[in-house]
Fold each of these.
Amino acid sequence: MGGKSAHYYPRRPAKAQSFLAKTKALLHTPGGLSGCLMIFSLDLLINAVVSGILIGGFYAAVTSGVSLSFGILDIVNIAHPAFIILGSYIAYIVNANLGIDPILTSIAVMPAFYVLGSGIYQVYYVSFEKRGQESLRGLAFFFGLLFITEVTLVLYFGVDYRYVEASYIGAAWHFAMLDIPFRILVPCLVSLLLIAALQIFLTRTFVGRAIMAVAQDQLALRLMAVDPIKIKRIAFGISIATASLAGAFLIIIQPVEPSVGREYIGRIFAICVLGGMGSLPGTVIAAMLLGIVESLTSTFYGPSWAPAVSFGFLLLTLAVRPAGLLGR
Amino acid sequence: MSMAEGASTASTAANSAAARALLQVDNVGKRFGGFVALENISLSVPAGERLGLIGPNGSGKSTLVNCICGTLRNEQGTVHFAGQKLDGLQAHQRTHLGLARSFQLPRPFVSLTLADNIRIPLLYTVARRRGSHHTAHEIEERCAKLLNEVGLGEKARRLPRDLTQVEMRKLELARAMAAEPKLLIADEAMAGLTHSEIEDILSLLVRLNEQGVTIILIEHIMSAVMSFSRRLVVLVSGRKIADGRPEEVMRDPEVERAYLGQ
Amino acid sequence: MTVRTPVFLLVWLVISAAVFAGSLALGNDYIFFAGYVVLQYVVLGTAWNILGGYCGYVNFGSAAFFALGAYSSVAIYKLITENDFYRMPIPVLMLIGGLVSGVVGFGMGYLTLRLRGAFFAIATLALAVVLQTLVVNWDFVGGSRGAYIIRPEQIEPIGNYIRYLFLLMMVLAVAGITIARLIEHSRLGYGFASIRDDELAAEAAGVPTLRLKLIATTISGALMGMAGAPFPYYIGYLQPSSTFGLDYAVNSIAMPLIGGTTSWVGPLIGALLLGSLQQIATVTISSAVNLLIVGCLLVIFVIIAPNGIVGLVHTYLQRKPEDFVGRRRVEAEMPGRVP
């Protein structure tokens, strides 16, 4: 229990840890060691920045679903992290029992998540959006879903940390002074693929363009004989489907227990707002920025401080530039 | 009568026309991204005026109203009201000064009864302005009187969801009137109403005007605008293209071309 | 029909005294342990409702405000332990806790309330995570290991200390519902309702919306902090993971929404009902299961009964739908005082 926050980067490369220790030792050594300090710091700095970028890629995947639902559809789905954790547990169950790769599992499960998402939107639409009660009761509804998912997982699996096995977990790529663990690199790359695919879908296909239009001009869509509700249902389904994949990434990167999702709420919405609400390229940039800052924070101040970074980011964005980085 | 009053009258007379105007809009500009919604709008409305503001859809009428009332911030230009600069004041502060509006699409307080809808401006604007203590009973009477004036007296205890579109518009007007404004901006208060309903609302507005309230009427229905307005302003694509007596404005070839079609 | 506030207060104080005397007569201190938690939820639910129910702004960070109150008590306790024991009476701790939470509530509101409501909700969610991070890293108040508070066994006239805490929480609960009711019937209450319904129209009617929202977040936050301040003395051992637990957040939302959000009665009914239910269920079933039940009830109620139990009773009593005119019926007949 005591290590509630210490799990943040539980499998952080031992090398980085030792550098941190060395740097601290140097700091406490009297005498002109500033030269050495700079070299070690530079090494630490570069490693932190690179791992921040990689983690940022993963954050982008985690956020892409919310960029769709909150950024474009204006549905404040605070239960999104719970669906991500659900994805993690599905990947874990299949991996533990059948030994199948978590990413493959999550891709196979995506259609089911899509159906789940469409169903949830239907309930949300009928119960709240149609009645104009989305701001209070709609939010409470998603909060209830978040809560139910989390408690159900606790009841079935307990609060133990779960993790998956795959060939690329544990391996790392050493390059000059860098070391890049594959368990972060692989999710990052697949995540960028996912976002590229989403971006192409949103800009090049008819349904995608209808999704982009649905928030702005429902009347125009109706005139084109497109049902805006159907478009929203599809979009929300896709948004939840991305949670399946993000869940697999999450459990590859770190061990997961049911309440881990909560830590991602601040992060996800901070990235979504900072990225300009619904812009996928903006999401990637904001995610990497947050990843770098968090990584630097946990390298130089300790991992237990990292969760505060996203909140600081969020408040700063809201106070200074609510339109986000790439916003108008 | 007294010397002081005489002196003040003289000084008022010496002031420019701008200072005497109740509402003075100078070079107001507003853009949304790259889209220029308003460009260099200047407008002077003296107290007691009945002004019609017309223009095609998207010509910037509502944007202008929003800039005057503080719902939107104009990037350029200034607005003076009753001799006071409005820049930087929030919407509710402008209402306190005596600037009231009705919304193009009625925006009632849906969980409050009609009487309570009226009560909000009474509690937050009128009570505050006079600094006097109204008894609950007086406020109750004011609510009833205002609702009676727009013909909603019998529904005082109902919720807005029980109202028809017409009644919603009347409620919207009654709520704006409740703030006891010096200037009332009625934003398309008559869209979708029948001829007799339009007559009702027009006579209501004229009555208000006779009581000393300056009125800006934004309207698509030309017959209503023409019968109500003593002066007409035309906006097209965010620019003011005409301003003057209604008959003259309507004869203006530019207005005919840009607004009424060929 | 409408009872004047002093009378209302008196009635509730009499009821409270009766409940306290009744509990004493039962002779089992367990009832005070359980009752304390229920009363704590009455305060949390009422506080949440002042912002959520009246103004329509959702606060997911109840746990954070509650924990702020609890940890200000711990910090003061730690400061004092080094010099002198128990010199700070708990009512004073409650005031300090309320002050701290009220200030944080105001700050949060100031940063986010100028934006859309959703941002405020999200920011409150994140606030809980961050405050938890701060507390976990703050060794003075025990960090992640938690902090022990040694409370006295007895207190002078009342006997067992838990009875004293119960009594304090009861007074706070009565104060809470009185404040809520006072707001509801005042000019402020009408202003809050106009904000909940349509902020743009409220501004146009002269309502200073930002100022009113800040008043609401401050009152609401302060009440939550006051509810949290005695908690370390109740629990004896305060741990970040349980103090910031999701159950506080979910309960303080679920109780008003299940009870009904438009009047002070709703959160009271919701808290008494759900709170007692949970106290029973925690003993008989597991605590995880009863939280699951609360979550499910919340979802079911927001979908099926948007006006909560109060709304259900209301519609049941008034079968004729055309007579149903909503929350202001009583006051419309008997107008409230106007400042």
Amino acid sequence: MHDFLEIVGLSIGVSLAATAIATAIGLPGGTALAIFPFRGRRALVVLINAFFGLPPVVIGLILYLALSRSGPLGFLSLLFTPAAMVIAQAILAIPIITALVHRASERAWARYGDELISDGATRLQAVPQVLMIIQADLITAVLAGFGRTVSEVGAVILVGGNIRGLTRTMTTTIALQTSQGDLSLALTLGAVLVGISISISATVFALAGRARTAGSDEV
Amino acid sequence: MIRIIRSILTLAAVIAINASSAAEQSIVLASTTSVEASGLLANILPQFTAKTGITVNVVAQGTGKAIDTARRGDADLLLVHDPEAEQQFMDEGHGSTRRQISWNDFVIVGPSADPAQVKGGSDSVAALKSIAATQAPFVSRGDKSGTNAAELRLWKIAGRTPDQLNREKWYRDIGGGMGQALNAASAMDAYTLTDRGTWLSFNNKGSLIVVIEGDPRLLNRYDVIELSPQKHADSKLAAAKVFADWLVSPEGQKAIGEYQMNGQKLFNPSSASPK
């Protein structure tokens, strides 16, 4: 039971941390990409959308080689730690959150951009305002990022090493139990994983609904 | 939204701090899947940690991968079971000492219907020849693990090279761990070679039974290898030595010998008289 709680806690903690990092980059990044015109913007957008489908095991492998003691980032001693898993998952979630935020921002900018600029705001000042306008889409983007990270197994098993009590998450436990032939246990844990994902989504939606109501009161 | 992000970041910081404090009194042991999947390490490590305060973080991989992990400098100690690959690792100068801690044996398992008619014998090579002759399905790990290496050595004695085998439809290279291979063999009614530890602790046997056991060529030795201070100065060699010494000490050997699964002993301690 203690093991179980530890595994669930680590899964959620690592995924939340990765989602937080990806959000911190993807939110302003996605909006800026919609607002600021620059050379190669189209290509960058295409690239980020393509990274949507990054195979996790490839990210895991590249990160494994980079974080290895004989690799360029080996001095950080991060391989086989939760921090390595957070980095891997953040890399997977960044394109998702950035692309979704970009799409919503592009629509909002097309509609309100001129208005915001004629109100005297610079493009930089317009970023938080656009983010306010697309609040609801932000929730979707962040949840999509979280969903990608919490369900991922290929990258975390490579860079985390599936170490009992240190880097063993729900998905890597399911892989391990399946390999031990404990199919019913694996399935049980799978059900827990699905349940947790659903309740986190529901909670965030509820919180977001309250935040929106509170916001409209102020206006 | 900002409050949510702030609490998430706090959580992330707490995790990061926990991770870094856990890293101080710990070593990374690159080991084979069999000592992990059989439950041996989970059983004996708490005894070691209680005595020394050193946490052993086990990264369970096939022997080939585990040796590669150590070669890259990503492990502090190695616990594997492929004599030839180990010798190569030592010859390359990556290891300092190599000591046997225990042995058990490999067995060939297969469907109880036994299409290749090999059940009951002890001659593993004759059994492989019958499997090939009747073209009965055979699952290979195909992952450069110690078991995979042992399997290929037996096939070689039976007169088949890996190239020849990979051209055969009945020879199914699944590229996975021991448990995956057993799952596959169980689903496909195929034969496969497995270490006894994983077999005894495996819970999805289906119609699989042991068909061949007791061949001296099926001996399975587990060695602990300490890394060379010249090539791996960054590894935690001192703490790794404490664990390696404990494994071969009377206390560690007793812990290994006492581990049982369903009333059966899985590993025979052998540091005093290596096989």
